[in-house]
Structures are given as structure tokens and as C-alpha cells.
From TrEMBL:
One of its GO terms (molecular function) is serine-type endopeptidase activity. It holds the Pfam family fn3_6. Residues 673-774 form the Subtilisin-like protease fibronectin type-III domain. SUPFAM superfamilies: PA domain, Subtilisin-like. The active site is at 148 (charge relay system), 221 (charge relay system), 566 (charge relay system). Residues 388-478 form the PA domain. Residues 24-102 form the Inhibitor I9 domain. InterPro entries: PA_dom_sf, PA_domain, Peptidase_S8/S53_dom, Peptidase_S8/S53_dom_sf, Peptidase_S8_Ser-AS, Peptidase_S8_subtilisin-rel, Peptidases_S8_3, S8pro/Inhibitor_I9. This is Subtilisin-like protease SBT5.6. Residues 139-625 form the Peptidase S8/S53 domain. Keywords: Glycoprotein, Hydrolase, Protease, Serine protease, Signal. GO terms for biological process: proteolysis. Belongs to the peptidase S8 family.
Length: 777
């Protein structure tokens, strides 16, 4: 059988091949046949290794992981030649190299801390959706696994007071290690494990100054995402600076959490600069999580570049999860607003974009001329009530710093203490981290600092808890402040202390950083799938870290604010957990479909979703729209897909061996016909007809009619024009015919670009809506 070999691509890159003599490769065989005991599987993996290695000992020493539960494969240290030999074997689906900094957690490097309210975005829905939580019994029977960088188990968000016994189906463990023993698991945190072999093979032994050799979180990210999914309701919590006061809660407050720590610090780099997660470690975690019995997986990890399915540890692991009906939610990535930057594009994954919530942390700048400029921060420290001299960073740099675009960015060591002391310094975004710029101003003795957005950030303010009095302003406002500085001899300013303001502006709106479609791995699958809150999100934090993650920031906080698709992913995982509780028999595809077809398209002002700069957003940013868990509980119809459907999908990519018992047809179907809740037709030449099948999960007798909003320049016909369901579980198919109105005007507009439209099935109660994206050949 034909198979895909990523390896051949790698081997043609002489540079890579020569400097990476012996690397970790993952040799992937698909599903297990289910006829072997665990030790026999490992023996088999050894024998494959032995077939390319000189000795038995060498074979044993080279094996990092043998994946034994559902994923059949192993990770081993191989030369390119050995890897190539293994990839020739018939039973091998793919062989791919592990890359050291390919995967990372997807925050935008923003950190701060405020007091507690309900986790944003859930707040409104909880009022309307108390019913949903009750129906789902707050998710108490549902187990959510998180692949992340650990957990701070002492956080009140993870207390298990009043929780019932651990579900009997649970087979996981509480793995002990540094500062983590079995007492740190409880009826809320029911499992914890950590995975280091891939990391340590590359970087050497973990430096325990920087992280715990255990499931404990020394960063904050893992604690944040875990509490967003399933943190308990923690009332009356106030925070450093006292911005907010209220109840903190995860989306499924009684769901059980299982922590799989797979991401670690990068040696020689500050935690602010990111982290790394190795494919072989993630595969081991996913293999365990599936066997442990998780129901939902939340994975806020991705790549900077889109990754082919056969080369993608997350896609492969998630595929095996799908066989057990485990719902997998992943972050879309933070590489927007550039198009085609999505990670986690496999059709069995819910790919989540990020959007804003309707809460601001208002801290304006008052200029010497009396003009007030809007700003936001969650920095607790305050300036005195007086005016301070104001300078632009580029005007107060040390002589060695060249006077170019980066001079105004407050990079480490760039500012002159003589010139900056006692002043408010305006720094621009660009290179470096936001909190790092504050640290530089503080080092130079500045009194305060204004962080100005670059044009790419526009008006999207990501708030931070800076190490000195500060606020952040839009790119337009940064230019206004610069003009003011230029216009006067003695520019002055002050920053008014921040306060929390609700319902300030239309929300949600799409975050500029949220990665965008089209999906370059399979343009026939529209991605992302959905959007959820990811800008300035409050959740629990690790006390082993500081709110900025800066090593010399002594502050310790219990709750913190972060931004990223890392934050939106656990929101959707929580919603999936609630749906799983209400509909335990639904497939993972049905749950995804329910979330997607009921998603919202309007902001709080009743207008179509925009990005944070006010430009109209489209399905390549938000997928089907903003998630609405309450509506998703009763979607009426779902676009279902079985494990076999996914195997058939893989056939179209020449991946024919993923399941031993499954035979690909000679001519695999087009992935355009994959029963997805959305539709993308790239390069349409003339007319295209695709098929979809709906399953009735609503009332027994229901009649649905289609409503179509065709992409402009195209006509869309749905057939049949009525779907008459007589019982629950009944399936009905229909076709969508899209025709390009092939005139010059349309060609000119859409050549290469996409037009967007919608088709909706409506029975008078349920709105089952799908986005469509079409481009011309
Ligand atoms: C471990 O990390 C700390 C802090 O970054 C550093 O000072 C120390 O030298 C590192 N130790 C080793 C053995 O690399
Ligand atoms: C929280 O504060 C409210 C109002 O101050 C009070 O009524 C309530 O008892 C407090 N709850 C807890 C758990 O402290
Ligand atoms: C400015 O100069 C520095 C030092 O030569 C260089 O690293 C940086 O890339 C330059 N920035 C721009 C925007 O040209
Ligand atoms: C400020 O003035 C300097 C020199 O006069 C000029 O180069 C710069 O472009 C001005 N900046 C703005 C924002 O007007
Ligand atoms: C759900 O699945 C369980 C176990 O497979 C089965 O016993 C039950 O009848 C199913 N319920 C429905 C409503 O299909
Ligand atoms: C699959 O294999 C066939 C025959 O070997 C080849 O023609 C086709 O291009 C391959 N398709 C993909 C998506 O790799
Ligand atoms: C579109 O289809 C027509 C007829 O099948 C064909 O002649 C033409 O080359 C196609 N155009 C493109 C751009 O593929
Ligand atoms: C081309 O098609 C578009 C969309 O259907 C239509 O609005 C426009 O009037 C047409 N132009 C011409 C020249 O036919
Ligand atoms: C739907 O099906 C029922 C039962 O088969 C039939 O009585 C009814 O007329 C149908 N309605 C429509 C609109 O086709």
C-alpha cells in the first residue's frame, strides 16, 4: 500500500540532515489490532528497532516511548537512514521527526492579575444558562483531560469539598514527583501525570530551578486553563490591586480534571519567552489519557506553521481519541491576523479561535494639554496624583542604540537612566515582551510607562500587571501621544489608576492575534470551527510563578489574566463537557456539530461580529461563530461523523493503514463530501455539488426548511427543499449545489480570495446554521 513519508522531505534538506545526525523520530502504525498484550507490543516495537540497529542493546537504548494503548507506534532515536528504512515498511503509516520548538502553549505572552468574577464569557450565559448547568449536573460525571504545563493543586479552584466519589470508569493515576504526591489529587483533580523523555533527550536533564519534575505547575498557564474548564466556584475572592471582586468559576465547575503535563521551559530562556512541548511526549500523554478514560480533552498547544496530519502528534493522538468518542478541543493559534496560520486543523478536532469579552480595565492617560487618552491596564501600582515629565523611549536611549524603529520599543538595556529617571516613558510594541518593556523602564528609573500598540495590534488592548505604574493604548492613541510629545517643549502626563468597567464596547469581537483560515492542510475543511473568550481572561494561577512570569518579579498571585487561543480552547472544552453530561451517547462529532450550528454571529449591540478594530469579521476568523453552550444543548439536528467516516477521510490523503480492519475504497471520496458542519469549496470551476447528512436529535416529528444566504457572486441550491423527520435518530441527506456566476466582475473580485455565505435549516424552533467559504479557480 502507498503511504505518506514526511521523511523523504526532510532528507532532501541537506542542512537539516547533516546537523541533526541522530534525532527522535516517531514511527506510527495506526490503531492497535487488539490481539496483543502490552509487553508483546513493546517487544514488537523493539524488533522493528532491532531490524535497523546494530545490536539488541542499541535498539533498547534508542527507544523513548512505546505507545501501547490505542496509538500503535514508538518514539526512538534514529539516524535519517534508519528512519527511512522503517518508513519503507508496509505496516507503517508514517515516520516523522520530532522538532524541538515546534509545539508550544498558545498564550500571547500577557500576564496579570485581578480580582475575581465569574470567568468572563460565562457570566452572561450562566444567568441564562443556569438551566444548562443544572441539566448537566455541573459536569460532575465528566472527566476532562488537559495537556498543558501542570497544575497548582492548592488553588481553591481545585478544592473537592462536597464532591461525590470519583467516577468508577476512571483508570488514571496520580503520579508523584517533586513537590507533588498522591495527596495532591482529590475528587476534583482526579489524575496527574508528567512526560519528559522527549524534552530531556533534547535538552538534557530538566533544570529544577525552572520547573518541577512532577505535575506541579511553575508557570501558571496549566493552572489557568484547568480552572477555566473545571474550576470550582470560589466566592468573595479579591485580588492584588482590587480591580474586581466576585466569584471565580470554571465552565463545568463539578467536572473532574486530569492533568497531563507535557510542556516545559526552554533552557536559557525566560518563561516569558515561551515554552516547548515535544510530539513524542504529547503522544505518550494522549495514549495514557485515552486509556485512563477521559471524556473530553482540552489542548491549548499548537504550532506556528500548519502541520500535515501524518506529521502532527496532536492530530494523530486526537484521531485515536475520536475512536473512543472523546471530544478534543484545541486552540487555533495566535498567529493572526495573517491568513492561513491555523494549527490543529484535523476534522476530528474542534479548532477554537479567540474573541473579546465586554470587560475593560480603564486607566486613561491625561496629557499636559488636558487631553485624556483611553488606556487599559490591570497594573496594581499607582502614580501620585500629579503630572510627570513624558518622554518617547527613542528619545531617551543610551547612545549605543541605533535611532531606528526598534529604538522606541524599550528592549532590555536600551534606556538611559539619566534621561528616563522619574519620567513616564512611552514604549511601542513590536519586539520583546510587553511586561519586559515595563521591566526595562523600571530598571532605568522611570516613574511609569505607556505601552503603545503597533499598527498590527490596532485597538486591541491586552492588559498586563506591569512591574511599575502603567497603562496600554491603541496604535492611534500612541500616535496622538507622540504628536503631543513633538508639539511641546515640556510634555507632561499622568496615568489615572485602573478600574473595572463592564459592558463598555461591543463584545464579542475577534482578537487580532487569533489565527485565521483558510485551512492550508485541507482547504475543503473550513477552519477554525468556533470562537470563545480569549482576550484578557481571568483564572487561577500558580504560586510558583509571578503574574508577569518575570523571574525577578516577586509578586505571588492566586488568580491572573491571560490572553490567547489557549484561553478560549478550555471554554469550549467546558461547554463540550456539559453537553457530554446531558447527552452521554452523542458522538464527539455530534457534540462539535451542536456547538457549531448554534454559534452566534452578533455582538452585544446586535451587529455582526467584527474584529477588535471594528472591521467586519468572517468565518476564517470565527468559524461558525461565537459559542453559545445553552443553545448547543438543543441543536435540533447534527452533522454526525463516525470513526469510519474519519478513516475514509484519511483514505483521501493516502493514509490507508490507520486501522488494520479498515479497507480504503479504490477511489476515496472527496473530502468536500465529508459530513462537516461547515463548507469550504476552494477554486470552484463552474458548478460543484456536495452532500451532507443530518441526524435528528430534536423533537420526534419535525419539518425543516433551508434558508440560504449565498456568497456574493455565487448561486446556491439546496435539495431537497424540505427535510421531514419522523423520529429521533433519523438521518436525511441533502445536496448543496454552488455555481459561480462566471462574469468578469465576480472573477476580478474573487480571484484567489474567498466569498462567504450561509445555509440554515429551520423548523420554527431550531436554527441549524452552517457557514460556507468559496473561492474561484
Ligand atoms: C538552572 O537555571 C538557573 C536559572 O535560570 C540557572 O541560574 C542555573 O545555572 C541553571 N542550572 C544549570 C545546571 O543549568
Ligand atoms: C460573600 O460576601 C457576601 C456579601 O458580602 C456575604 O453575604 C457572603 O456570606 C460571603 N460568602 C462567603 C463564602 O464568604
Ligand atoms: C535597528 O538596529 C538594530 C541594531 O543594529 C537592529 O537589530 C534592528 O533590527 C533595527 N531595527 C529596525 C526596525 O531596523
Ligand atoms: C516628531 O518629530 C520628529 C523630529 O521633528 C520627527 O522625525 C517625527 O516623525 C515626529 N513624530 C511624529 C509622530 O510626529
Ligand atoms: C446510551 O448508551 C448506553 C450504553 O451504550 C445504552 O445502554 C443506552 O440505551 C443508550 N441510550 C440511548 C438513549 O441511546
Ligand atoms: C495518493 O496516491 C495516488 C497514487 O499513488 C497519487 O496519484 C495521489 O496524488 C496521492 N494523493 C495524495 C493526496 O497524496
Ligand atoms: C474549468 O473547467 C473547464 C471545463 O471542464 C476546463 O476547460 C477549464 O480548463 C477549467 N478551468 C480551470 C481554471 O481549471
Ligand atoms: C455579475 O454577477 C454579480 C453577482 O451575481 C452581479 O451582481 C453583477 O451584476 C454581474 N455583472 C455582470 C456584468 O453581469
Ligand atoms: C411529513 O411526513 C409526514 C409523515 O410521513 C406527512 O404526513 C407529512 O405530510 C409530511 N410533511 C411534509 C411537509 O412533507
Amino acid at each position: 500500500m502507498k503511504k505518506v513519508s514526511i521523511l523523504s522531505l526532510i532528507l532532501f534538506l541537506p542542512l537539516l540532515a547533516s546537523c541533526v545526525e541522530k534525532q527522535v523520530y516517531i514511527v506510527y502504525f495506526g490503531e492497535h489490532r487488539g490481539d496483543k498484550a502490552l509487553h508483546e507490543i513493546e517487544d514488537t516495537h523493539h524488533s522493528y528497532l532491532f531490524s535497523v540497529k546494530k545490536s539488541e542493546e542499541e535498539a533498547r537504548a534508542s527507544l523513548l516511548y512505546s505507545y501501547k494503548h490505542s496509538i500503535n507506534g514508538f518514539a526512538a532515536v534514529l539516524s535519517p537512514d534508519e528512519a527511512s528504512k522503517l518508513s519503507e515498511l508496509d505496516e507503517v503509516v508514517s515516520v516523522f521527526q520530532s522538532h524541538p520548538r515546534k509545539y508550544s502553549l498558545q498564550t500571547t505572552r500577557s500576564w496579570e492579575f485581578v480580582g475575581l468574577e465569574e470567568v468572563e464569557g460565562h457570566q452572561k450565559q450562566r444567568r441564562k444558562g443556569g438551566d444548562l448547568l443544572l441539566k448537566a449536573r455541573y459536569g460532575r460525571e465528566v472527566i476532562v483531560g488537559l495537556l498543558d504545563n501542570g497544575v497548582w493543586p492548592e488553588s481553591k479552584s481545585f478544592n473537592d469539598q462536597g464532591m461525590g466519589p470519583i467516577p468508577k470508569s476512571w483508570k488514571g493515576v496520580c503520579q508523584t514527583g517533586t513537590a507533588f504526591d498522591s495527596s495532591h489529587c482529590n475528587r476534583k483533580l482526579i489524575g496527574a501525570r508528567y512526560y519528559l523523555k522527549g524534552y530531556e533527550h533534547f535538552y538534557g536533564t530538566l533544570n529544577t530551578t525552572n520547573d518541577y519534575r512532577s505535575p506541579r505547575d511553575k508557570d501558571g498557564h496549566g493552572t489557568h486553563t484547568a480552572s477555566t474548564v473545571g474550576g470550582r466556584r470560589v466566592p468573595n475572592t479579591s485580588a492584588l490591586g482590587g480591580f474586581a471582586y466576585g466569584t471565580a468559576s470554571g465552565g463545568a465547575p463539578l467536572a473532574r480534571l486530569a492533568i497531563y503535563k507535557v510542556c516545559w521551559p526552554i533552557p536559557g530562556h525566560s518563561k516569558v519567552d515561551g515554552n516547548t512541548c515535544f510530539a513524542e511526549d504529547m503522544l505518550a500523554a494522549l495514549d495514557d489519557a485515552i486509556a485512563d478514560g477521559v471524556h473530553v480533552l482540552s489542548i491549548s498547544i499548537g504550532t506556528k506553521e500548519p502541520t500535515p496530519l501524518t506529521d502532527d502528534g496532536i492530530a494523530i493522538g486526537a484521531f485515536h481519541a475520536t475512536k473512543r468518542n472523546i471530544v478534543v478541543a484545541c486552540s487555533a493559534g495566535n498567529n493572526g491576523p495573517t491568513p492561513s496560520t491555523l494549527s490543529n486543523t484535523a476534522p476530528w478536532i474542534i479548532t477554537v479561535g479567540a474573541s473579546s469579552v465586554d470587560r475593560d480595565f480603564v486607566a486613561p492617560v491625561v496629557l499636559g494639554n488636558g487631553i485624556k487618552v483611553e488606556g487599559q491596564t490591570i497594573t496594581p501600582s499607582k502614580l501620585e496624583k500629579k503630572m510627570y515629565p513624558l518622554v518617547y523611549a527613542a528619545d531617551v536611549v543610551v547612545p549605543e542604540v541605533p535611532k531606528n524603529g526598534t529604538a522606541g520599543q524599550c528592549l532590555p538595556g536600551s534606556l538611559s537612566p539619566e534621561k528616563a529617571k522619574g519620567k513616564i516613558v512611552l514604549c511601542l510594541r513590536g519586539d520583546g515582551t510587553r511586561v519586559g518593556k515595563g521591566k526595562e523602564v523600571k530598571r532605568a528609573g522611570g516613574a511609569g510607562f505607556i505601552l503603545g500598540n503597533s499598527p498590527a495590534n490596532g485597538g486591541e488592548i491586552t492588559v498586563d500587571a506591569h512591574v511599575l505604574p502603567a497603562t496600554a493604548v491603541s496604535s492611534d492613541d500612541a500616535i496622538r501621544i507622540l504628536n503631543y510629545i513633538n508639539s511641546t517643549k515640556n510634555p507632561m502626563a499622568t496615568i489615572i489608576p485602573a478600574r473595572t468597567v463592564l459592558h463598555t464596547r461591543p463584545a464579542p469581537s475577534m482578537a487580532m492575534f487569533s489565527s485565521r483560515g483558510p485551512n492550508v492542510i485541507d482547504p475543503n475543511i473550513l477552519k477554525p470551527d468556533i470562537t470563545a473568550p480569549g482576550l484578557n481572561i481571568l483564572a487561577a494561577w500558580s504560586e510558583g510563578s509571578s503574574p508577569t512570569k518575570l523571574e525577578d518579579d516577586p509578586r505571588v498571585v492566586k488568580y491572573n489574566i491571560l490572553s490567547g487561543t489557549s484561553m478560549s480552547c478550555p471554554h469550549v472544552a467546558a461547554a463540550a463537557a456539559l453537553l457530554k453530561a446531558i447527552h452521554p451517547n452523542w458522538s464527539s462529532a455530534a457534540i462539535r456539530s451542536a456547538l457549531m450550528t448554534t454559534a452566534g454571529l452578533q455582538n452585544s449591540k446586535g451587529f455582526p461580529l467584527t474584529d477588535t478594530t471594528g472591521n467586519l469579521a468572517n468565518p476564517f476568523q470565527y468559524g461558525s461563530g461565537h459559542f453559545q453552550p445553552t443553545k448547543a444543548a438543543d441543536p435540533g439536528l447534527v452533522y454526525d461523523a463516525s470513526y469510519d467516516d474519519y478513516l475514509l477521510y484519511l483514505c483521501s490523503f493516502n493514509i490507508t493503514d490507520a486501522e488494520p480492519s479498515f479497507k480504503c475504497p479504490k477511489v476515496p471520496p472527496s473530502t468536500l463530501d465529508f459530513n462537516y458542519p461547515s463548507l469550504a469549496i476552494p477554486k470552484l470551476n463552474g458548478t460543484m455539488t456536495v452532500k451532507r447528512t443530518l441526524t435528528n436529535v430534536g423533537g420526534s416529528k419535525s419539518i425543516y426548511f433551508p434558508i440560504v444566504k449565498p456568497p456574493s457572486g455565487f448561486s446556491v441550491k439546496i435539495s431537497p427543499s424540505v427535510l421531514n423527520f419522523s423520529h429521533v435518530g433519523q438521518k436525511k441527506s441533502f445536496t448543496i449545489t454552488v455555481k459561480a456566476q462566471n462574469n468578469k466582475t465576480v472573477r476580478k473580485i474573487y480571484k484567489g480570495g474567498y466569498a462567504f455565505g450561509w445555509y440554515t435549516w429551520f423548523d420554527g424552533i431550531h436554527v441549524v446554521r452552517s457557514p460556507m467559504a468559496v473561492s474561484l479557480a
